[in-house]
Structures are given as C-alpha cells and as structure tokens.
Design goal:
heterodimer; A: 285 residues; alpha+beta; 5-stranded antiparallel sheet; 4-stranded antiparallel sheet; 11 helices; globular; B: 177 residues; 5-stranded mixed sheet; 5 helices; binds flavin-adenine dinucleotide; binds FE2/S2 (inorganic) cluster
Chain lengths: 285, 177
C-alpha cells in the first residue's frame, strides 16, 4: 500500500480537536520518530496527519516550585534533559532520557509521543510512574486528567481515544531530600530499546517507589513490592532480598527478539539491587 | 511517502499524488520556495527535489544517521521528518559546510585523519560532529562518542573519526585566537 495523506498543522487546540472530530483515519504527529516508521512500513493506515507542534499548550515546559513540572506534548526530550533544574529535581526522568535512542532522535522525540506509542519498553514510562505523573488529555468536551498508572492499557495501547489529543504531562513537585535513579540494560550501549528499564525513587519520607519498563505488556508500578519494602528497614542488607523479590512482579515476553525471559529476570534483579544500594549510598552522604 | 519496491526490502520514493503544498525554507543559506508532496520526507525533498545528494538514506528508520542534517540548530534524522515540517526552518546539509569552494576545517581533518573509507556515513557524521563542536568547542572523547552515537560507520572503526573531531576542535579554537 502507498501512504497517502494530507498534512494539517493548526495553531490552536480548538482547530486541532475539530479537525480530529471531522476526520477519521487521522494520525497525530509529534516528533515522528515512531509514526514515520509505522507509515513507512505501512503498519498503520492514515489519511490525514495532524501536526500538533504549533498548538501553544503543547509548547510549554515549565517547572514551578511547590507545584511541579509540566511537559507539553511538543517538547522534544533533549529540551527536558538539558534543563539543569529539572535534572536536579527529577533525576530518574533525565537519566531515562539520556538512554533513549541517539542524540539526533532525542532532538525530535517527545516524552508524550513516547508514552502514547506505549511500547512496553518506553523508557520514560517508569520514571513517570514513580513520580505519579498525570496525563492531560483534551477533546472537544474538555480536558480530562489521567494518572499515569491508569494510562497504559496494553501493548501499544493507551486510554487515549481517537478524538483526543494529549496536551502534556505534569509531575508533582518533590520535597527536599527526594532522590531517584533510572537504570536500563540494552543489548548495546546506547541506541537500542531496553531489555529492562527500572526507576526507583526514595522520597524524603523514606518511602521507596519502584517501576519497570519492558518486563510486562505494560510499564509497571510495583506497588505490592513497595508495600513490602515499607515493612522493612532500609539498609544495604535489603540488596540480595530485592534482587530475588522483584522477579515475582514481572511477566516478560517469552519470544522477545531482544532477550529471553530468564535474562530479563536476572537483569531486573541485578538492576534492582544496584538501584537500591545507589539510592541508600547517596542518602548516607 | 515510500513504497515497498516489488516486495524487496528496498524502499524508494513514490509520489503520493496528493495535492502539493507550498514550502518555504532556507537551505544552506539560500531561500527555497517549492511545492511539495505532503507525504515526502525531508531527506527525499533534499535529494530528489533540490538535488542535494549529500545526505544519504542508509536505513530510512532513524538507526544509521546517514541522513543527519542540521535543522534550526539541531541535528535530526531527515528520513524521519516530513518535508512540510520544515516550513520556515533553516537547514544545513553537508553541502553547506564548505565556504567559497574551500572545505571547512572539520572536513579537512576528516581527510587528514583518514576518517572515511567508503564515505557513505561521512555526510551524516560530519553534521553530527559539526553540531557537537558548536555545542562543545572543546569536547571530551566521551562527549564525541555520545555526539556521534547515532551515526553508524561500518568501515573506519570510529577511532579515526574521533581523532579527526579532536584535531578539528583544536584547529577551530586556534583560529578563534
Ligand atoms: C532509532 C530509534 C531508536 C529508539 N530508541 C528508543 C529507546 O531507546 N527508548 C524508547 O523508549 N524509545 C525509543 N525509540 C522510540 C521513539 O523515539 C520514542 O517512542 C519517542 O519518544 C516517540 O516520540 P515522538 O514525538 O517521535 O512520537 P511520534 O512518532 O510523533 O508519535 C508516536 C505515537 O504517539 C501518537 N501521539 C504522539 N503525540 C500524541 C499526542 N500529543 N496525543 C495523542 N497521540 C499522540 C502518534 O500518533 C503516534 O502513534 C526509538 C526510535 C528510533 C527510531
Ligand atoms: S537513513 Fe535516516 S537514520 Fe538511516
Ligand atoms: S566510511 Fe564507510 S561507513 Fe563510514
């Protein structure tokens, strides 16, 4: 099949939403680093391309102390990672971005595109989960706000409907002393989707939050594991325990092109232990 | 945009026959006004419509970096950008690096350091290296590696490319003094 589509780049959200209502078979274009591949391979059908990069609401990137961070849907991930303030407040988010694809892809790829594409291994998903991010989704009826934990519904599936546009993602502010880390393992260093992506966050109240990418059909927040950690004393002795424990919460694919289930179980354990020790070590300083 | 050619894993540009849209942009310092196929990639626009054959299509999927150009100050994989997305933008391709028929310092250092063999990766590699030097005039080896990580070279083994970028950075700094 030949890809045939026209192109529309509205400058207001209203125009964009009206266009979506009127035209079925429309694909939303942000950075295009996933969509262009799908179109090239004729993996999706599409008659209209709706470029959202001129919509003012999607062009916002702002951090406000006591409120938090808003990342508009047109913001390429490099813009986020280059911001030293954001890096200081949400380290796991910026570390996840550092490991995503190559520099030139990161100049185009957006964080919102990353979660809307909803690959189980989407690198930014795990940090968003540990920061309780909220997804702002607009339609002509108005804006609804969805917890990131309820956003993913399956492999490459989300709660976003055909007539909706994600305008951005917000992350609540953190308190002094909050810290986080993102660890990933891929076949080669850089430039490959991860086999396991792990975000861990230690809040100022000494609560541990854990989320993982690429170990189940959707990115996972490990709330049960978090509860069990909550009953234990946070010391480096938890390392070997978490290394085994974390495997209970994973359901990696059997026939993955990137790695076997066994390998993913093993790596997840190693990363969990490493992440825990790293956060405790930083806290001790 | 592209069509699978006779079932082979070989893609070539096929006109989508969609109504043409006006496109205005600046390419290598020159204003360009054209009508384009809305389904055409920026890479195909540069190569087929503007006859700028520097940027190459290696994979067409964002993996190899052979199509890297600089768009509004940022490197992008032009195989993943639609030509119409470049409206009002400023683009530099490898053809824009030399001035008045003379190769830039960076290009000269690629030659001096044998940083190319078949040369297929070179136009993209040069654009990533150019952008890296604009961001980090005195790059560390780690920064160079990170800067060219999205550009595959199947010939040189990369060391000569890293050497070329280091010598170019040094010469560029000296020329500033
Ligand atoms: C070579 C290469 C390497 C990669 N490596 C990685 C990697 O290591 N880790 C990783 O996580 N990803 C990786 N990716 C995938 C990709 O770069 C990311 O998923 C990227 O963040 C997608 O963002 P985008 O803006 O390019 O999305 P687009 O391609 O523009 O859109 C992606 C999907 O989301 C939809 N969409 C986009 N924006 C919205 C919106 N605002 N509202 C509703 N729907 C929307 C689109 O319609 C499309 O279906 C890689 C891609 C390539 C080509
Ligand atoms: S041709 Fe664009 S990255 Fe390979
Ligand atoms: S010189 Fe041949 S691919 Fe780099």
């Amino acid at each position: 099949m030949l890809s045939k589509y026209d192109y529309f780049k509205p400058d207001t959200l209203e125009k964009a939403l009206e266009y979506l209502e009127k035209n079925s078979e429309t694909r939303i274009l942000a950075g295009g680093t996933d969509l262009m591949l799908l179109l090239r391979k004729d993996a999706v059908s599409c008659e209209h391309i709706l470029d959202i990069k001129d919509i003012p609401e999607t062009k916002i990137l702002s951090y406000t102390p006591k409120v938090g961070l808003f990342i508009g849907a047109s913001i390429p991930v490099n813009r986020i990672a280059e911001d030293d303030v954001i890096r200081g407040v949400y380290p796991a988010l910026c570390q996840a971005i550092d490991g995503l694809a190559s520099f030139q892809i990161r100049n185009r790829a957006t964080l919102v595109g990353n979660i809307c594409h909803a690959s189980p291994g989407a690198d930014t998903s795990a940090p968003l989960l540990v920061y309780n991010a909220k997804v702002h989704i607009a339609s002509i009826e108005g804006v609804r706000i969805v917890d990131i934990a309820n956003f993913f519904t399956g492999v490459k599936k989300t709660t976003v409907k055909e007539n909706e546009i994600v305008i951005g993602v917000s992350l609540p502010d953190v308190e002094q002393g909050d810290n986080s880390i993102y660890l990933r393992k891929a076949r080669i260093k850089g430039h490959d989707l991860c086999n396991v992506g792990l975000a861990m966050r230690l809040t100022s109240k000494k609560e541990m939050y854990v989320a993982m990418a690429a170990v189940a059909p959707i990115p996972l927040r490990l709330t049960e594991l978090e509860k069990t950690i909550g009953t234990k004393e946070l010391t480096s002795e938890l390392g070997p325990w978490i290394q085994e424990e974390i495997k209970k919460y994973m359901d990696p694919r059997r026939n993955s092109v990137r790695s076997s289930r066994e390998y993913r179980f093993h790596i997840a354990g190693v990363l969990a232990k490493r992440g825990l020790l790293n956060l405790l070590e930083k806290e001790a300083k | 945009m592209c069509n699978q050619n006779g079932g082979n894993n070989c893609f070539e540009y096929v006109d989508s026959q969609m109504p043409r849209v006006p496109l205005q942009l600046v390419v290598n310092g020159e204003k360009v006004i054209e009508f384009v196929d809305p389904a055409m990639t920026l890479l195909n626009f540069l190569r087929i419509q503007l006859k700028l054959f520097g940027a190459k299509e290696g994979c067409g999927e964002g993996e190899c970096g052979a199509c890297t150009i600089i768009m509004d100050g940022h490197t992008v994989n032009s195989c993943l950008v639609l030509a119409v997305e470049a409206q009002d933008s400023e683009i530099t391709t490898v053809e824009g690096l030399s001035k008045n028929g003379e190769l830039s310092i960076l290009q000269q250092e690629f030659i001096n350091n044998d940083a190319l063999q078949c040369g297929f990766c070179t136009p993209g590699m040069l654009m990533s290296a150019r952008n890296l030097l604009d961001r980090h005039p005195e790059p560390t080896v780690e920064q160079i590696k990170e800067g060219i990580a999205g550009n595959f070279c199947r010939c040189t083994g990369y060391q000569s490319i890293i050497d070329a970028v280091i010598s170019a950075a040094k010469r560029e700094r000296e020329e500033l003094i």
